[in-house]
User: What shape does this take?
Amino acid sequence: HLSSNDALEKVAEARDKGLPAYAETCPQYLFLSIDDDMNKPGFEDAKVVFTPPLREKWHQNKLWAGLKKNTLQIVSTDHCPFCFKEQKELGIGDFTKIPNGGPGIEHRMQLLFSGGFSEGRITLNRWIEICCTNPAKMFGLYPRKGTISIGSDADIVIWDPNKEYTISAHTHHMCTDYSMFEGKKIKGNAETVMSRGEVIVKDNKFFGKPGRGKFIKRDSYGTAWQ
Assistant: This one.
């Protein structure tokens, strides 16, 4: 989970030498910072205790540039949720007892579309690459996953680029009582999600059934290394 320009420069240096160096970052490092999201009242700062920690805001533009230049290939989430009540609050009086991690899996694509493509930081194709194609290649799942092609699984998202909403713990579907991105206004959201040709999300409602997942045998190495 690359979070700083210092680490980004090391990755760029290795890639410039022709080494097979790959890296990813997470939405919290692209949208949150020490400057804007720390020093909150009470124990609120515990909501953004994770590893690596937040950095100064100036690192964000460097990370966006790394995504654009392909120094960074993927944006993941480091989704490791704990509720604020009764879990994060275990660290009141002792920082070392704060559970390390935060929720984020639900809003990865929306944040990157709204803050990346819509604001001109990355192209539409690049958004798809860092969210879908590159992860499939890295993990040895391409071309079964990560592309809409003959012979590939029909994993398809129909995207509404004009859908506007505000991220909130009151409306998200994650089983946690807070959001790291509470109050952030977003433009763009999934209208329909299909998995292997079956509609599992429609108009913000989930229709998937427990047990429908299938084992997928991966290649021994991803196509990114070839």
In short: The chain is about 25% helix and 15% strand. The chain has a mean pLDDT of 94. The first strand starts at residue 24 and ends at 25. The two ends are 23 Å apart (CA to CA).
